[in-house]
Amino acid sequence: MTLPLVPSLPISSASTDEFISITQVWLEKAVIGLNLCPFAKAVHIKEQIRYFVSLARTPEELLQDLIAELEILAEANPDKIETTLLIHPYVFKDFLDFNDFLDTADGALEELDLDGILQIASFHPQYQFADTNIDDIENFTNRSPFPTLHLLREDSIDKAVIAFPEADAIYEKNMQTLSNLGLDGWKKLFSEHEKK
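Above: the chain sequence. Below: its structure as tokens.
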């Protein structure tokens, strides 16, 4: 099962703005709305999130976009760009292929000497943790409308952990939140947006 707001959008005819708009709905309703990431609200409100839609159709093209976005984030003033969501709707629609690419993504960090400065988190419409069934609700903590690489600053993560000392408990809390919500509740999060 994927996010309910995605199937209504024909990806082949979608514009960059539509990919960003749908990703923002997911961020607002799921990530922030359910408090899955207590650090997301502040950067969203301050408009410090950079959204970049890669039109890559091959892993090699995506890697080039990833390298460019890592360099942009590393050089940017954190007050202007705190974090980046690199949305890539046309490549790695299969989660296992996407998951395999993460090793390549981490390799790019090391080649750019940005390992320890930036890190990459991953979101996907078919995200599945090890030892879970495809529709287990806990997988939805990392389910985004489109395959997405989240580029983060290590310094920001360290500051967030200091500000939120129970950061290690976020995963367990998210599992409980989604368990309480259930699949029907997850669908309802986006039903109003789909009707518009």
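The chain has one domain: 11-195.
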